[in-house]
Design goal:
The chain is α/β, with parallel strands linked by helices. It contains 14 helices and 14 strands. It is elongated, with a radius of gyration of 21 Å.
């Protein structure tokens, strides 16, 4: 008899990448029947089906953080979301519910709790999201990416990453680099900078890279620039630089493992998925934390910065000149880049997807 599970999460790549990675690990362990729950608005509508997983959409809304009329309507909306989530759980015949955060997770957690089903939650960020904070004390297992994440009963397991990312650990990134660069039309030799502001893009990073582009190309640095689908400018084209360098703009990359393999250095926001994945594959980073919210991205990056595996530029200090200077300094010192890569892999160990999958199997009553 197959193990029947419901996995909930959505909104951004940060919630969806560990969901897909855990689903891959569960499938590899034995006979499982997985139903994923998301909304009709987030990236899950494309990412989850692309991974070969079933997605059921429910209505779910963010929890209001201020006293507004939306707060008055919250109990009615949450009740409706819980009913939908409960119907999915019942239809799936789930024995365990696994959540990865995002506002879709809360009604799924509540519906599972009412049915007295074990709840496994995984928190990606160093500072937890609201859904996981609300339900942590009711979960059978609370798993986190970073040590010291303030959730009761938290156990640090790292971040589940997809098999393609995990394969780049150790010496895998160097071995995959020639084919990855060819796939993006990048030079085989010479330094390559990967730039991404996350699944939604980041205007300040995009602007700084655009301003620094000519100087970097003139220095022989190729740039793989992931703009974000909402920000991709019309008419963007490949630009040739000196020494074979190229500027390659793209709206979105489905397989970030290939992009990691192509690069020598990355400029990015410090979302949990980016921090953990680049550390696992040993890709040195220049992080520009998102300047709003609760400061979680600074906290996410701190372990790598302390270890010498990454550097920070605060968003307020980001400019074309500052970015160009930092990138050329780092890419100009191959020995230091190698030290950063080694330090990164010492901070973030792989194998989290397998650990999460084993915990889920155990709570379901046994092993495959």
């Amino acid at each position: 008899m197959s193990l029947k599970l419901v996995l909930a999460g959505g909104g951004t790549t940060g919630h969806l990448s560990p969901l897909v990675a855990t689903a891959q690990a569960l499938t590899a362990m034995g006979d499982v029947d997985i139903t994923c729950v998301g909304t009709a608005k987030g990236l899950e509508t494309s990412v989850v089906p692309a991974a070969g997983l079933e997605l059921v959409r429910i209505s779910a809304d963010p929890l209001p953080r201020r006293l507004t009329f939306d707060l008055v309507k919250l109990p009615f909306r949450m009740a409706a979301s819980m009913r939908q989530a409960g119907a999915v759980i019942d239809e799936a015949g789930a024995s365990v519910v696994v959540g990865f955060g995002g506002y879709v997770s809360l009604p799924v957690y509540l519906a599972a709790w009412r049915r007295r089903l074990p709840i496994v939650m995984h928190e990606q960020n160093a500072l937890p999201g609201l859904a996981n904070k609300v339900m942590a004390r009711r979960a059978a297992a609370v798993l986190v990416t970073f040590p010291g994440t303030p959730l009761p009963g938290a156990r640090c397991v790292g971040l589940p990453v997809r098999t393609g990312v995990a394969a780049l650990s150790g010496g895998g990134r160097a071995a995959a680099q020639p084919d990855a660069r060819a796939a993006f039309g990048l030079q085989r030799g010479g330094p390559v900078l990967l730039v991404s502001g996350g699944s939604q893009g980041a205007r300040s990073i995009n602007n700084a890279v655009t301003g620094a582009r000519d100087a970097l190309l003139g220095a022989g640095v190729s740039i793989l620039h992931v703009w974000g689908s909402a920000n991709f400018p019309a008419g963007s084209a490949v630009i040739e630089g000196s020494q074979g360098a190229r500027y390659v703009p793209v709206a979105y990359i489905e397989d970030m493992a290939q992009a990691y393999a192509a690069a020598d250095l990355m400029v990015a926001r410090a979302g949990a998925a980016t921090v953990a994945e680049t550390a696992i594959v040993g890709l040195p980073c220049l992080f520009v934390p998102f300047p709003h919210g609760n400061g979680e991205q600074v906290r996410n990056a701190e372990p790598l910065v302390r270890a010498g595996a990454a550097e920070l530029i605060m968003d307020a200090d980001l400019s074309a000149g500052a970015l160009s200077a930092a990138v050329t300094r780092l890419l100009g010192d191959a020995g230091h880049l190698a030290e950063m890569a080694t330090a990164a892999q010492s901070v973030m160990q792989g194998g989290a997807a397998q650990k999460v999958a084993e915990i889920v199997w155990s709570l379901a009553g046994g092993k495959p």
